[in-house]
Design goal:
With 375 residues, this protein is of the alpha/beta class. The chain folds into two domains: 88 residues, Arc Repressor Mutant, subunit A; 199 residues, Rossmann fold (3-Layer(aba) Sandwich). It is 47% helix and 14% strand. The strands form two sheets. Strands 6-5-4-7-8-10-9 form a seven-stranded mixed sheet, sandwiched between helices. The protein has a three-stranded antiparallel sheet with strand order 1-3-2. Strand 7, helix 16 and strand 8 form a beta-alpha-beta unit. It catalyses: N-acetylserotonin + S-adenosyl-L-methionine = melatonin + S-adenosyl-L-homocysteine + H(+). It is an enzyme of class 2 (transferase). This is acetylserotonin O-methyltransferase.
């Protein structure tokens, strides 16, 4: 390359002093983002939100340290963790406690925000199990292998033998869920309780118009199906999952549990529900699952449909940027466990390849959408 072209390209890299410092700040902010995740997990594991709640909604650093068993020599370090979590909005900090007995004492008190209220164990909205599901060693070690993984692989190699999780851990993601002490199942159940409470309230029409029966595929111990059955008592709800999952399911008077493999058979029903299932699987696997679903439901004219609760990345285009960021971050997270989040054109291709004729997307205020797919 001629010297002049080198000079011209080097000039493209030039920045003013202000630009340079701002760029450095942004780079460090991106690089240190993982610290927020680990601080959040530490606070959740130490049950700091529960401590604040038990203390009437506000607690000093000393009270937090005492109630959570922090060693006296580590209290100053706890303050550093709490400083991260108040700066990022997980907790808030105020001087004095406000309207209670400690008002005006000048001490700093930590309080719950709408985020940390989701981490109180006795709350009906408790999402603390999901923190451990997201921030776990398996997925982190898998994603750390991305540079190596991107440069490996041969034509014809099986997807499983060349997945990120296989490269990093020598096993599949599903292998780990069998020995994680129920952590994954607890996280999914917590997510279902909150998601379904809101979705059934705001978008219940997708379920209310189902004639009489619904099968929840991969429904684990029935958190999602139970919510549907209680909201719509006219529906006979069945949960399909693997034999070892069904064997551990609690007894229920509103659900029927069926042991089986969704790649082989789906029990007949007016509608099939797939909540956060297809994002775990590759394209060709999703097509297979959807074909089994199509075999299980009646024609569109008779009310048959598949209800998918999952992400449609970037849909609608008017959604807030933090929602889009959460979607694309979750997509990379899913890549670590060999899954993916999808844009509308990819969903459409899956549906057409599986033999479906039409679909309707209903976005929610969260990061997921309801997709109704018709045979």
């Amino acid at each position: 390359m001629p010297a002049a072209q080198h000079i011209e390209r080097d000039q493209d890299l030039a920045m003013s002093s202000d630009e340079l410092l701002q760029a450095q700040l942004e780079l460090y902010h991106h690089g240190l983002a993982f610290v927020k995740s680990l601080a959040l997990k530490a606070a959740t594991d130490l049950r700091i939100p529960d401590t604040i709640h038990r203390r009437g909604g506000a607690a000093t650093l000393s009270e937090l340290a005492s109630d959570t068993g922090i060693h006296p020599t580590k209290r100053s370090n706890l303050r550093r963790v709490m400083r991260v979590l108040t700066t990022t909005g997980v907790f808030s900090i105020v001087q004095g406690k406000g309207s209670n007995d400690h008002a005006g004492d000048g001490a700093a008190y930590y309080k719950l925000t709408r985020v940390s209220r989701l981490l109180v164990e006795r709350s009906p909205h408790n999402l603390s199990p999901m923190v451990g599901t997201i921030v776990n060693t398996l997925c982190w070690t898998s994603l750390l292998k991305m540079p190596e993984w991107f440069t490996q692989g041969q034509e014809g190699e099986s997807a499983q033998s060349h997945s990120l999780v296989q490269l990093a851990n020598g096993c599949t993601f599903w292998d780990t869920t069998k020995v994680d002490g129920g952590l994954f199942n607890d996280g999914m159940a917590a997510d279902s309780r909150i998601a379904m409470k809101v979705l059934l309230k705001e978008h219940g029409g997708a379920f209310g118009e189902v004639k009489s029966s619904l099968v929840d595929i991969g429904g684990n111990h029935g958190a999602t199906a139970s919510a549907v059955a209680r909201a719509f008592p006219h529906l006979k709800c069945t949960v399909l999952d693997l034999a070892h999952v069904v064997a551990a399911a609690p007894a229920s008077d509103i659900l029927t549990f069926v042991a089986g493999n969704m790649f082989e058979y789906v029990p007949p029903a007016d509608a099939v529900l797939l909540k956060w299932i297809l994002h775990d699987w590759k394209h060709e696997d999703c097509v297979k699952i959807m074909r089994r679903c199509k075999e299980a439901i009646p024609a569109k004219e008779a009310g048959g449909k598949v209800i998918i609760i999952d992400m449609v990345v970037g849909y609608p285009v008017t959604q807030p940027n933090d929602s889009i960021e959460a979607q694309v971050l979750l997509d990379i997270y899913m890549m670590g466990s060999d899954g993916m989040e999808r844009e509308e054109n990819v969903w459409s291709l899956i549906f057409s390849e599986a033999g479906f004729s039409d679909y309707k997307i209903t976005p929610t205020n969260g990061i997921r959408s309801i997709i109704e797919v018709y045979p």
